[in-house]
Design brief:
The structure holds three protein chains of three kinds.
Chain A (H helix, E strand, L loop, with lengths): L1 E10 L2 E11 L4 E5 L6 H9 L6 E6 L2 E2 L5 H6 L2 E3 L12 H12 L16 H11 L15 H13 L5 E5 L7 H12 L6 E5 L3 H7 L2 E6 L2 E6 L1 H6 L1 H8 L5
Parallel strand pairs in A: 3-8, 3-9, 6-7, 7-8
Antiparallel strand pairs in A: 1-2, 1-4, 4-5, 9-10
Helix pairs in contact in A: 3-4, 3-5
Chain B lengths: L2 H32 L6 H19 L2 H24 L7 H23 L15 E4 L2 E4 H23 L1 H11 L1 H6 L4 H23 L9 H16 L4 H21 L1 H18 L12
Chain C lengths: L2 H23 L2 H26 L8 H17 L4 H23 L4 H21 L9 E2 L16 H24 L1 H11 L1 H7 L3 H27 L1 E2 L6 H14 L6 H19 L3 H15 L3 H6 L9
The chains are: A alpha/beta, B mainly alpha, C mainly alpha.
Amino acid sequence: MLEARGLGKAFGALEVTRNVSLSLPAGARHAVVGPNGSGKTTLFNLLAGELRPDYGSVLLAGRDVTRLPPDMRARLGLARSFQRNNLFPDLSVRENLALALAIAQRRGAVFWRRFARLPGLAGDVEALARRLRLEDALGRRARSLAYGTQRQLELALALAGAPKVLLLDEPTAGMSAEETAAMTALIADLPRDIALLIVEHDMEVVFEIAQRVTVLDYGRVLIEGTPAEVRGSEAVRRRYLGERVP
Amino acid sequence: MDSGFLLLQLLNGLQFAMLLFLLAVGLSVVLGMMNFINLAHGTLYMVGAFVGFAAAERAGSFWAALVAGPPAAAALGAVFYAGLLRRMQQAGAMKQVLVTFGLIFVGIDTVRLIWGDYEQTLPAPSVLAGSVHILGQVYPAYRLFVIALGLMLALILHLGLERTRLGAAVRAGVDDRVMAASLGLDIERAFFAVFCLGCALAGLAGVVAAPVLEIYPGMDMAILIPTLIVVVVGGPGRLAGAFLGALLIGMAETFGAVLVPDFSGFMIYAVMALALLLRPQGLLPARHSS
Amino acid sequence: MSTGERRQHIVAALLLLAALAAWRFSGYAGEDRLGEIAVWAIFAMSLDLLVGYAGLVSLGHALFFGLGAYAMASLALFLKGSPSLALLAGVATAGLSALAIGAIVVRLAGVFFIMITLAFGQMGWAYFLRARAFGGIGGMSGVRQIDLGRLGLDLANPADFALIAIIAAALVYLLLALITASPFGRMLVALHQNEHRARALGLPVQRYKLAAFALAGALAGFAGGLQAQRTGFVSPELLVWTTSGEVLIMVILGGLGTLVGPVAGAAIWVVLRHILSDMTAYWMMAMGLFFIAVVLFAGGGLMGLARPRAAADDA
């Protein structure tokens, strides 16, 4: 569903992404890990369309989207969440969800009837809220929510469009143990056929969710394989734990 | 168009450019450092001219105007900065722009209150009142003085920016304010000093322009937009940008008024629009970090 | 309907009643004032759509105000056509110009957007200042008025004009109230709140900004046409940047993004201007100080003051 072929990006003299390739078929559960500065965020942004690569290409459902901006990729079925909550802060949770749904359903151009009365929208909002355990917060302003609840809303917005490809940027960032467990459960509950790519720091989450893992190191792919392969890899151990080769 | 005419227009263009430069420098650096457009910048120009005029009348000498005008403008700027601007740092760009917009109205009427509605004249000093022969043409000495003054100030400012600690702080602040502050450079004081300096230059421009243009309430509005255009075209935050932009606009205005008078007013704004579209960071961008 | 919307409509209804009462009981001068307020109210509401809802701060909105006025006046004059058609043509001219210019300017944001709208506004002003075909600095007078004789109304009579203008303003309010409550209107609010996220969700943000810009321009053109009808002349002053500034002041005074606030803001500013200019030759200073005070201490405008300190948590 989503494919990156030899992506590269440099900022000035600094090569942040070096010849990275990965492949995400439907139903994939793929994690990208690596220490700070390894280029995870840049890769993520290249896939989402926030950045243009210097070389390489991105394919979505077989179609080359390398030149397409984020909103076009979203309309083609790619959704992403943000590492730092990126909500509509002064609007209610209900309206946040409603907007995301309306955008995904391409109903934003309607100007002749009230937004609240769009047929089916209220029902869709309730359903989405229930899926993400947000029913109790619907009337509250987004900025007033607890951090963990905001993260749930963050995920809900990304899911509103029933995407084919979902990119999650550190979904458990800043969460307590219980919140992390709840989020992990939500992620595990995602539709089977969604292609999921998750950038994560928390290795436990990674090993619980991921079927394949890509390890980045200074912008290039160090290794890609199953979680077990990665865990057992000598190269990874050296990099992550800093053991010097004698 | 013969070469004599060309030379005259070049000199006129250069003279106007120097005026624009003096005005643009303050506005540009403030925009680059604080991301703030001071629409009341023209008010300082006007205040400088009027205060200078009053001083010249009292003392019977043009040079009194040069001495009185810039400090008056700087003082006013300082009061505005300390009293209003600093408090509004968090308020957002739009509020700052709106407040300065309100100040324009206040400024015009204050000047009217003190000096009345009519035009005032500040004649050039007698030593510069004559004409000079230059390259086969006759040209007013005062205008040459304006050109010389502008160039000299440009040089002084350049040296100040490159060679002094204050200048280094300013350059750092324009480049990356957060970083500069975290390095312990006293950014706040640098900003304040630069702001006041910019106001003083605007006041100076007012005095210097007086013998050539008119002094009247509302002169600030006439000069504000061309100044804004210079800042946009040259690139906010850089001295060289203000200088280059001023040259371009000064020449464009002067030659435009002579060659295509019906179009020239329109043309200036078209240049601004084009600059914003094609090269919003200006001809000489300040920001090196992305 | 949310509490905010309900409050909006109640205030609007009250303002309409007040306007009609004032119309009924005031004399010549009052009626003239009412007509002026109604025209500026339409102008201000159109800008609120742009600034308050979509978050695009324009310092050049008077361009479309003036274009509507000049188009209406010149088409009625030169083509000897029906003035009412000319008014419609004025709206169309303003709207299409806004579409064309908007396509260029909505790419920019923030301070740059302010500056480029300023530039375009001044381009228009500079053009009409020199354009002999349109009267140059003196403008054109003798604008033909729409004949409403069949309704028993004469637009040359301030009372009749005021009534028509008030009704026009009410209709514009209803139209904009519907649009701002529609999905399109909420999309504008969304991209104002968080353009980045709206784009990431798939909203073609530029298209929506352009639509808002064009609609706002068309409505400003309508106000301009009405202005030409009211005063009987058009001049470059209609497009100068201080006119753009004044209408922005009205919107801020009344309350950004409240639609009805700008109507109140227009009323206050027009009345204040007349009272102050009668009292003192230095009314600009008073207005400037007043405006600064509003920006500093009552950033939400009148509607912001009217809103009770509700629980900030609940929306």
